Amino acid sequence: MIKVAENLVSAYFPPDIISKISRCKSVAVSFSGGVDSSVVLISMISILGASKVRAYTFRSSLHLKQELERGMELCSDLGVRQIVIPGPEQEDIRVMENHLDRCAVCKRLRLEHLIGVCGDDSVLVDGTNYDDLKDPTRLGNRVISELGIFSPLAEAKMTKAMVREMAKKQGLPWWNESATACLATRFPRGERLDSFEMDRVAWAEIALKDNGFDVRLRALKGGVICMEFPPQKEEILTLPSGALLEILKPFGFHRIMVDLEGYKVGRIWP
């Protein structure tokens, strides 16, 4: 059960940030359904009440449908209004052809769209945390700063670990799930993104995780797929190849490989 409790918020957010939020007429949360934005949404409701909070979620082929669905369920449980919007990035060639600046372009398109629809009375907030600010691979950070978006987790200097700790105490069911990242990261830079291929990779990753494999897939043309396991996985050479093939073959992959270097955040593929 989700806990909407002001005393829990005060344990993680300093008084000046709580005061800043309390003075808002209303807030609009850029809400993906991930751990960070879920913690922000629950915290905003704890401070302001559900009637002064709105959740804005983008529906896009670049993200897992499961995150959208669970986010909609969370908003319903919390009694907060959710507005689902088609992702504007799906119409931009720089994003859909997976350019090097895709992430920054996508972030700007989305935030500028939200600024336009939220109205002057609402403060737009997002789920950027303190660790995100120090991550050079997150090209959208500069956009967030330029547009003046309020990131309460980052301002409170809440790290990823602290956010997950708070999410657990709030009763968020997916508090300890690995970040899924944009599906465009599964494909080579400069390759035209295809919704069918992104869905195929997404469902394959879900099937692997449902069977106990923590893995990130990287796709190449011709039905070639490469698995990246956490780098600390020492027994990578003794993985049960038969079980992995049995899971992945039904998705139509013709060649299935393992990257011996393992998963690395921000790594450009290939």
Written overview of the protein:
The chain is α/β, with parallel strands linked by helices and about 270 residues long. The model has no long low-confidence stretch (mean pLDDT about 95). The protein has helices spanning about 5-10, 15-20, 35-50, 65-80, 95, 100-120, 130-135, 140-145, 150-155, 160-170, 195-210, 240-250; strands spanning about 25-30, 55-60, 80-85, 120-125, 215-220, 225-230, 255-260. It is globular. Helix content is about 40%, strand content about 15%. Strands 3-2-1-4 form a 4-stranded parallel beta sheet, sandwiched between helices. Strands 5-6-7 form a 3-stranded mixed beta sheet, with helices on one face. It is built from 12 helices and 7 strands. The chain has 2 domains: about 5-170, Rossmann fold (3-Layer(aba) Sandwich); about 185-260. Strand 5 (about 215-220) and strand 6 form a beta hairpin. GO terms for molecular function: sulfurtransferase activity. This is NAD/GMP synthase domain-containing protein.
